[in-house]
Amino acid sequence: MNIVSQTIAWLADPAQWTGPNGIPTRLLEHVAISAVSLVIALAIALPIGLYIGHTRRHTAFAVNSANLWRALPSLAVIAIVLPITARIDPNAGFKIYPTVIAMVVLAVPPILVNAYSGLSGVDLDILEAGRGQGMSESKILTGVELPLALPVIATGTRSAAIQVVATATLGAVFGFGGLGRYLVNGIAQNDQGQIFGGVVLVAGLVLVTELAFAIAQRVLTPRGLRVATRPAG
Predict the structure, then answer these.
(1) What is the three-class DSSP state of 104?
(2) Residue 142 has pLDDT above 80, yes or no
(3) pLDDT at site 178
């Protein structure tokens, strides 16, 4: 039986769709840890990106620091923080916290850099016109800069989400569940169907994430910008 047949047989096996190790459970685990990691990354990166983009202060330090984070391999981050988190919490500190921290490190740079780029790309004449009309800085940020920068910010969040979903499989190496469990177990058991079944599931989730964020990005983009960026013909 070739790999394709083994993969289809594994995915079609009803036993893979029930119980604590079933695909629905593993999928929920994968989505949950990805969502938590992305929310934490947004809470860290978005305020910083908006601040430096609006004030134009500390931009070099913030952007260079974010780019430095990009160079950190997720597997290495997990391995580095695991002894610390495991000492703090012997259970979740070994299986969950290291994966979340690694995914946050992965997701922060695209969100922060795109938030900064989106705001810094707003025409200064528009901002000066707003100030000339007596608008406060917070009003300029929320009423002018943020709506205009939203497509770029959404692109960064979309990129971060895709990277997190694809890379969260590494958590299974250190005992976490998720779809990566099928790859780890499949390699340990020399089960090609399980390995490639896991690959198919992860790839499918990445594609669904890409589509969902693309739709959200379009919905959140102001209508005027949508029309302006629509291809001719």
Answers:
(1) helix
(2) no
(3) 92
Residue type at 69 in one-letter notation: W
Residue type for position 55:
T
pLDDT digits (tens, 9 = 90+) for 68-83: 888 888 888 988 898 8
**Residue 51, Cβ neighbours under 10 Å: how many?**
18
Where would I find the beta strands (DSSP E) of the chain?
A: none
Q: Check whether 226 has a pLDDT greater than 60.
A: no
Instruction: Give the three-class secondary structure for 147.
Output: helix
8-38 in b/e burial notation, b at 16+ Cβ within 10 A?
A: eebbeeeebeeeeeebebbbebbbebbebbb
Indicate the burial class of 199 (C-beta count within 10 angstroms; 0-12, 13-18, 19 or more): middle
Average pLDDT over residues 204-230: 78
